[in-house]
Write a structure and sequence with these properties.
Number of strands: 12
CATH topology of the largest domain: D-Maltodextrin-Binding Protein, domain 2
Oligomer: single chain
Number of helices: 13
Strand order of the largest sheet: 7-6-8-5-9
CATH superfamily of the largest domain: Periplasmic binding protein-like II
Helix content: 40-55%
Distance between the termini: 42 Å
CATH architecture of the largest domain: 3-Layer(aba) Sandwich
């Protein structure tokens, strides 16, 4: 009997995932699938509630329920230094601002907790945190610093009117010497068990799209320019600066991030990273 059930896929709204999706056509898959494009926080919730079978999510969201999910191999949004879209805007130098009040975006948990880890572990700060909608001027009306991510951060950086801008990817790399993985592609263990052939085909299609994009980022950069504005050179550099693999180096940085989050009580338990393959689950211990 043919299983005609539809696989529910998620996609992050932000431009940083575009190289993975530029050449990906869900209609070309051999099985029915639908895609929901949402902010990371929404995808995180939908995946945890079982409304999605597979989705890229913020790394922290995966860490919160890693026992229920597997990482798809070869896919992430990572940076080995500057990320250019995870930015803290402050009225005074970052090392001073982290000791005051920080306005946090409400759109992704990974970057929020990365800032907390850097502020408290790297700088020994105990700031006051407030969560806000991603509107820079309103955020800074009553705060010393404001965290924005994704397209909100990019636009605010373009329009910057004199604030100090701190790239959290740079801060993490300078402090730990490791890369930082901001998003991962996850599949529920239930879906992986029920539809192994589909998950294999889906993974291959996403990785193939990513590899095709990385051969020449110009088409992706042109799409970003047409939708968001800016210079073509900026977008070419932006995408080239990101890493979309899931190598041992990415996993090492991700494991350290999870360890620090656990030590600070941000995660309820230790995270054992498990990666899906056709034949087995690969476990990556901290």
């Amino acid at each position: 009997m043919i299983d005609n059930s539809v696989l529910q896929l998620g996609r992050i709204l932000y431009t940083n995932v575009w190289p993975v999706y530029h050449y990906f056509d869900p209609s070309s898959l051999s099985f029915p699938a639908t895609t929901r494009t949402e902010l990371p926080a929404v995808l995180n919730r939908l995946l945890l509630e079982g409304e999605l079978d597979m989705s890229p999510v913020s790394s922290f969201a995966y860490g919160m329920a890693a026992h229920k999910f597997l990482l798809l191999p070869g896919l992430s949004v990572s940076a080995d230094g500057p990320v250019k879209s995870i930015l803290c805007f402050s009225k005074r130098p970052f090392d001073e601002a982290v000791h005051g009040r920080i306005a946090l975006t409400n759109t992704s948990a990974t970057s929020v907790n990365l800032l907390k880890i850097i502020a408290e572990k790297a700088y020994g700060a105990k700031p006051e945190y407030v969560t806000c909608e991603p509107d820079l001027e309103k955020m800074l009306e009553h705060a010393d610093a404001a965290l924005l991510i994704g397209d909100h951060a990019i636009r605010a950086d373009w329009a910057n009117s004199g604030y100090v801008v701190t790239d959290l990817g740079v801060e993490w790399k300078a402090w730990t010497g490791k890369s930082m993985t901001f998003a991962v592609w996850t599949v529920s263990k239930e879906a992986a068990s029920r539809y192994p052939e589909r998950i294999s085909e889906l993974t291959e299609a996403l990785v193939a799209s990513k590899l095709q994009s990385m051969k020449d980022l110009t088409p992706v950069a042109k799409e970003a320019q047409s939708r968001l504005g800016g210079e073509l050179e900026y977008w070419n550099e932006y995408f080239a600066n990101l890493n979309y693999d899931l190598t041992r180096e990415r996993l090492d940085g991700l494991s350290l991030y999870f360890r620090y989050a656990r030590e600070m009580g941000l995660l309820p338990e230790t995270v054992d990273i498990e990666i899906w393959t056709d034949t087995m689950q690969i476990r990556v211990n901290e």
